[in-house]
Design goal:
The complex is a heterodimer. Chain A is an all-alpha fold. Chain A is 71% helix and 2% strand. Chain A has one domain (3-204). The N and C termini of chain A lie far apart (44 Å). The model of chain B has no long low-confidence stretch (mean pLDDT 75). The chains are: A mainly alpha, B little secondary structure. Chain A: The chain crosses the membrane at residues 62-80, 92-113, 119-139, 151-172, 178-199.
Chain lengths: 212, 10
């Protein structure tokens, strides 16, 4: 564990808490893509099956349980509790366009052809593109609430900080995982356009709006 | 799974 990895985890935790608080306090999930949240639940479920097979640390276990539980709680809030506020007309990205290619890729490019490892690989690939329905929704409506921008920024920073962590681990531990690194870079690149808008608009006190 | 496939990151 190094400071970059820890900051990445904290950023990830913060993103989830911001999202849950936004929905809970405003009693609304307007502007939030339920499809991205379903994909994230799928990501955590398939990745953290190793909770049953290997133990890393109490920290590791606690975070995994939190990520799984919070992802299902978010889906519950969007699709059941506050479903009247869910913006389904703008959440039209087709999940199968992401899940199916990623599934094929996980079977072809992985470290080991075993069920758990293929599911882990699938979750790494899926996470890298899981935010696309949300970004698609923002581009479709041309705007995002400021709190939603903070959520997206924290979520994007998490994998960006992991990249720094991987550079650090490569130099100081000789450790690297090419699947995680390439997927992590793809994931971070997808946020670049949003990062630019966040810095130039949201941090200057304006709402995030896209040019028509 | 081999020990080096123990994924220690989240």
């Amino acid at each position: 564990m190094n400071v970059f990895r820890l900051s990445g985890d904290v950023s990830h935790l913060l993103a989830i808490l911001i999202l849950l608080m936004k929905i809970w306090k405003t009693r609304s999930c307007a502007g939030i893509s339920g499809k991205s949240q379903i994909l994230f639940a799928l990501v955590y479920t398939t990745r953290y099956l190793d909770l049953f097979t290997s133990f890393i640390s109490p920290y590791n276990t606690a975070m995994k349980v939190f990520f799984i539980a919070s992802s299902y709680a978010t889906i519950y809030l969007i699709y059941l509790k506050f479903k009247a506020t869910y913006d389904r007309n703008h959440d039209t990205f087709r999940m199968e366009f992401l899940v199916l290619p990623v599934l094929v890729l996980a079977f072809v490019v992985n470290h080991d052809f075993t069920p758990l490892e293929i599911l882990w690989t699938f979750s790494i690939y899926l996470e890298s593109v899981a935010i696309l329905p949300q970004l698609f929704m923002v581009s479709k409506t041309g705007q995002a609430e400021t709190i939603t921008s903070h959520y997206l920024f924290a979520l994007g920073m998490y994998r960006a900080l992991y990249i720094v962590n991987w550079v650090y681990r490569y130099y100081f531990e000789g450790f690297y995982d090419l699947i995680a690194i390439i997927a992590g870079v793809v994931q971070t690149v997808l946020y670049c356009d949003f990062f630019y808008l966040y810095v130039t608009k949201v941090l200057k006190g304006k709402q995030l709006t896209l040019p028509a | 799974r081999t020990p080096d496939l123990l994924h220690d990151e989240l």
